[in-house]
Amino acid sequence: MGKSTLLKLLAWRKIPVPKNIDVLLVEQEVIGDDKTALQAVVSANEELVKLREEVSLLQKSTFAAEGENNGGDDEDDAGERLAELYDKLQLMGSDAAESQASKILAGLGFTKDMQGRPTRSFSGGWRMRISLARALFVQPTLLLLDEPTNHLDLRAVLWLEEYLCRWKKTVVVVSHDRDFLNTVCNDVIHLHDQKLDSYRGNFNDFEVGYEQRRKETNKKFEIYNKQMKAAKRSGSRVQQEKVRDRAKFAAAKETAKNKGKGKVDEDQAPPEAPKKWRDYSVEFHFPEPTELTPPLLQLIEVSFSYPNRDDFKLSNVDVGIDMGTRVAIVGPNGAGKSTLLNLLAGDLVPSEGEVRRSQKLRIGRYSQHFVDLLTMDETPVQYLLYLHPDQEGLSKQEAVRGKLGKFGLPSHNHLTPIAKLSGGQKARVVFTSISMSKPHILLLDEPTNHLDMQSIDALGDALDEFTGGVVLVSHDSRLISRVCEDEEKSEIWVVEDGTVTSYPGTFEEYKEELQREIKAEVDDD
To answer: Domain 297-524 class?
Structure first.
């Protein structure tokens, strides 16, 4: 709808921004080179780097001059300039720069060892974190963040929430994470019907205000519609024009009142007659799975390690999933959450231990990897018909299009090559395919990354009504809370320190524990 475009226009100053305000948009991953992650963050402060380089050159030239006994005025000038530079560096907090950069990187999940690695050795997701760390380190007056939580794990999201709550400057964020918006924002700008509407308060406050505005708009439309129908029945064109003009004048008066003028501006084109509020809605559904006798899937004393990777191993993994089971897998990035999902799916074979699967078990799998593996030159309809040829009804193509429509893919995209679809549209094709495979268990690895808020809610509703098993890896607190609402059927698996343990409390308790740790860390800073 144009949210990312709006941020770019601000960053490029196509929307006027006062000259004294420095603007920084975080949208692209840092370019990988031989700089370490820590150096990449510190180098974001270009002024600091220039001053340090000048100090270094002056020190070398002064040292060389002393060695050649060429003192005198030049040496005095260099000494004065050095003293001036030292004062500037002190004011900029140069001594604490590396320490501050290190704390930001640690908050975003970088260990000490990772901070010393060259940026080229990191994947795209980690490079995005370095970009975010650079922005937080520089502290621009206006910080623009486009979906900052997409590449973060739950702990890093909670750390960023805490960090931004203490941010003294202005942040404009585009995000689909409700909890994140609720915690961080005190104003909401809603892009609706190609207009920007402002709401005071956090996301919960916005929802109340939005609903009120929607009801008021629809009420005005109903009154206008009723009057127009009556005028049309009378057959009088004059009467119809009167109704239309009255509605336009009322709308213009309200616009003027909202702008604080109190009277209609004659030069301004009058607003249009009332229209019905157009809501965007989407529904996801997974079919009712056939009953299977438990256990559906078990990992018994499983261990796994990758060849040539001494730094990673999962050991003594003992977990199981049945119909109705709800599992959230949590833990730091790189600890093995995706590896555990791959072991459950059968994509990886354990080094030790046993995997037991029900013979007729069908698994529905979602991850970014699967989105990237779509056949890009095919259309969604061609792709799905190839994977699921057994469609019922007169037209197999229409049956597939009906399913794509239910997952919110617009009809004009059904016959578009997949390569031309956005990330969110590709995700819908994968979800449609999962639904068509009629799974007993859903294994979902960060399913919200390319979904808008309404689609995440629709996914939550679909998982609520799904009677099979659900295993979820996500940084979206609200989705995890929804999936793990029923304490009797829910489990929290913590992947950390090379093994998988079951957390003894609820997800909310786990989250509160993390928040306490993070708050203590940030307080120390």
So the answer is: alpha beta
Instruction: Show the 3-state SS of 177-234.
Output: CHHHHHHHCCEEEEEECCEEEEEECCHHHHHHHHHHHHHHHHHHHHHHHHHHHHHHHH
Q: Residue 442: what pLDDT?
A: 96
Structure tokens at 223: 């009154």
pLDDT at 14 over 90: yes
For 288-338, write each residue's pLDDT tens digit. Answer: 999 888 889 999 999 999 888 878 899 999 999 999 999 999 998 888 999
In the chain, DSSP finds a helix count (H) and a strand count (E) of 19, 14
Express each pLDDT in 231-273 by its tens digit: 777 777 777 777 777 777 676 666 666 565 544 445 555 566 7
Contacts of 224 (CB under 8 A, 6+ apart): 243, 247, 273, 274
Question: Poorest-confidence range of 164-178, 261-275, 336-350?
Answer: 261-275
Most confident of 315-319, 422-426, 452-456: 315-319
Distance, CA of 382 to CA of 497 (rounded, Å): 44
What is the CATH number that goes with domain 3-45+92-193?
3.40.50.300
> Distance between CA atoms of 220 and 292, rounded to whole angstroms?
54
How many other CB atoms are found less than 10 A from the CB of residue 523?
9
Cα–Cα distances in Å, from 170 out to 23, 140, 165, 192, 458?
10, 8, 11, 23, 32
Residues carrying CATH 3.40.50.300, the chain:
3-45+92-193, 297-524
- Alpha-carbon gap, residue 403 to 436, rounded angstroms: 8
Distance, first Cα to last Cα, the chain: 39
- How many residues are recorded in the chain? 525
Residue type for position 421: L
Question: How far apart are alpha carbons 84 and 14 in whole angstroms?
Answer: 38
